[in-house]
Amino acid sequence: MTFVMILELLIVLAALYVGSRYGSLALGAISGIGLAILVFGFGLEPGKPPTDVIYIIIAAVTCAGTLQASGGMDWMIQIAERLLRRHPAHITFLAPLVTFFLTVLVGTGHVVYTIMPIICDIALKKNIRPERPCGVASIASQVGITCSPIAAAVVAFVTISNANGYMVSIPQVLIVTIPACLIGLMCASLASYKRGKDLDKDPEFQKRKADPKIHKYMYGNSATTLDKEISKSAKASVFIFLGALLVIVCFAFCQMFHTADGRSFAEAINLPKMNICIQIIMLMAAALNIIFCKVNLPNTVSGSVWKSGMVAVIAIYGIAWLADTYFSNYMEEMQAMLTGLVTNYPWTIAFVFFLVSVLINSQGAVVVAMLPLAYKLGIAGPVLLGVLPSVYGYFFIPNYPSDIATVNFDRSGTTVIGKYLLNHSFMMPGLICTFVSTVIGYLITNVLFVHYFASFAQ
Known about the structure:
Layout: H1 3-22, H2 26-41, H3 51-70, H4 72-86, H5 91-106, H6 112-125, H7 131-143, H8 152-163, H9 170-192, H10 203-210, H11 212-219, H12 232-256, H13 265-268, H14 274-292, H15 297-302, H16 304-329, H17 331-344, H18 349-360, H19 363-376, H20 381-386, H21 401-409, H22 427-448, H23 450-454
């Protein structure tokens, strides 16, 4: 690398670091400063903003926002709460499954804010150390992103892979990521099952419990959604949303199978590209919610799902554009430096994905920013699909909103950030889950189903 390349890379990293310190919209906005320096200061050719992925996120967030505003999400949370309260002794295993599948359905991990107080309450009332289910449940809410058919990371992986000759579909991605991530989560839950001291043996907790005010704070209130009345229109919005997801998956299957003349079913019936299908179906479902499910439109744009989705749009917009600008201008140099490593050990790209995720707090942004580089380095599509779970690394530094919120929701004080920043409640389950999920995903695509996935290679 030349001095100028190193200097420009430091500018990229500095923009990402400063943006992560401010959080929220700052990740994307401050990337604009780095972009301006590279383009106007160093004269680099601007890269391409990831417009296709952004459009899909906007459509999916609009649909999920109407679901939340109609009350449909409250019904989904109620169903999840009934399951958890029916089996409180197994909260450490059930809680991450609940947050995982909620994310898979809705496409965003921010749905965890509604269910996390309930998880904490159930654990505390059952005398289970809340850190055990809370830590892994927060991790699970983000792991589900690479397993959702409407999440930006999955759609971006499929879109970019197809553009680079690896004709993989959304169902094929989920065939790998869902079992891999579930195995990773169960390993993390098992490691968390006896984590830390039991509450009756924890002197710090007992000291807090002995204080009447803190005791009342911990045990005086019960977090629940079971007392909410769910309207018929709210339930209808859930069925509309789930129906839309089903249609998307069916359309994706049409791209997997072929007619006798070699065309895919999607081509035979003149279906547009999958990214267009998702946008149309999500917007249509949002419209049906608005027309038939009494959606409060102001609540749609003020809800947590809409807000978090729009933040993701700005983050991916700025980060991916900044990264593409740098890498596209130095692709030959990058290939010369990394070709030997990725040729002999292509799975090492997982470490790159993980480290970039630590910096930019967005799995979708990692995929959009780094996947084109990985393909240009000659890494095979099945390898990249196998290591897709490694794009989740932003638990490493505990500054992500869901982790911070979980610490605040745990009234027992057992879920913590830690005195030394990295010794926090999310580190152990996060590392175990990401490592195991990535290894299992790699084994699925490159060992167990090598011939199946090779048929979709470049």
